[in-house]
Amino acid sequence: xxxxxxxxxxxxxxxxxxxxxxxxxxxxxxxxxxxxxxxxxxxxxxxxxxxxxxxxxxxxxxxxxxxxxxxxxxxxxxxxxxxxxxxxxxxxxxxxxxxxxxxxxxxxxxxxxxxxxxxxxxxxxxxxxxxxxxxxxxxxxxxxxxxxxxxxxxxxxxxxxxxxxxxxxxxx
Length: 172
What we know:
Layout: H1 3-47, H2 51-55, E1 58-65, E2 71-73, H3 74-83, E3 94-105, E4 108-122, E5 128-144, E6 147-162, E7 165-171
């Protein structure tokens, strides 16, 4: 066997091994980005009180279980959304979803995510305070046709800070 052929085989083996390692990481990043976009679309629909748009993201059987173990359906969330007064945009208010992990298994996915928000608020003391909130959940998504629908959310933790100090924390 020639020297060049042996080294070509070694190179090909190394290349295949690196693809085997990189491909799952790339798929994970793609899944995370895709679910972050779905969460952003849901957040936009809820903010705009757009029931039709929210209905394209929440599965009909959607349920959310909070830290106390209380469960709400998607219909209850949408009804509650409709009762909330529309807010004027607040430039200090920042809200985003961070997908920590997304594992797709066929037509089902498990997503660990955090809803991170914050803004400025005037407190009872009359002073402006910086508020921060992080809510963590484990969510189940299902692929139905061409769309991923949110089926279930289970809150796993919540932390609220005022001016950088934790004043409420529960779960992880």
